[in-house]
Amino acid sequence: MRALRISLIVFGGLLVLALIADRIALFMAQGEVASQARTSLELSSEPDVSIRGFPFLTQVLGSHLDRVDLGLDGYEARVEDQTLTLEELDVRLDDVELGSGYSSAVAERAGGEGLISWEELTRAYGELLAVSGNGFGVEFGYAEGGRLLLTLQASVLGQSLDVGEVTGDIVLENGSIRLEVADEDIPDTGGPQVQETIRQQLDMEREIAGLPSGLSLESLEPTEDGLALTITGSGVNFTG
Questions:
Q1: CB 163 within 8 A of CB 154
Q2: pTM for the full predicted model
Q3: What is the rounded distance in angstroms from the CA atom of residue 137 to the CA atom of residue 18?
Q4: Paired sense of beta strands 82-98 and 105-117, if any
Q5: Mean pLDDT of residues grouped by 10 in the chain (240 residues)?
């Protein structure tokens, strides 16, 4: 009995040491992945990294991670030449193959969710419109039923004019987005010329670019907090 008790104590001690070693290795690996991701994605700070699955050391020995979660708060994408900050961009990477010393990591599948606040969307879109110099402006908000609320402005003879509010939708097709508003819903304030300018700007297609390499825009949905987006991809290389 004494020998068995000693064996159990030794085994328990070894198990505890193995668990400690596993957690230490996990902590160090998450720090290394965060550093590599910051470099490859050109982030201003390291993202939050969580490597899932247990035990961790067996995954490392097989150079394969079941799942890696990245939290990228304040990620900067682009709409044409204007920056567009995505808040709370969370990316999940599944079946990640590791290179030696974490020099590379390729996820077989990836997906994520993020948010563009209404204030940020209004700012970026406004700067795009300012470049055209046609005097058209729009402020974005949320309308009931999961639609956009657009507050339209225009410049007539050098004077700023509040055209009015309309509800609309945002349409994603082949990676490009555009605003969709029914013709009969556009206020007639300002006359036909103003209406035509509004129609041209609403119909213009724009592209959200600069997403993490290998990921593309899957959907956009208006919410009370802003424009929620989902992204997907495969064969995503998120370190380098």
A1: yes
A2: 0.79
A3: 62
A4: antiparallel
A5: 48 45 61 70 73 68 78 84 86 82 77 92 79 69 89 67 81 85 76 74 81 87 93 78
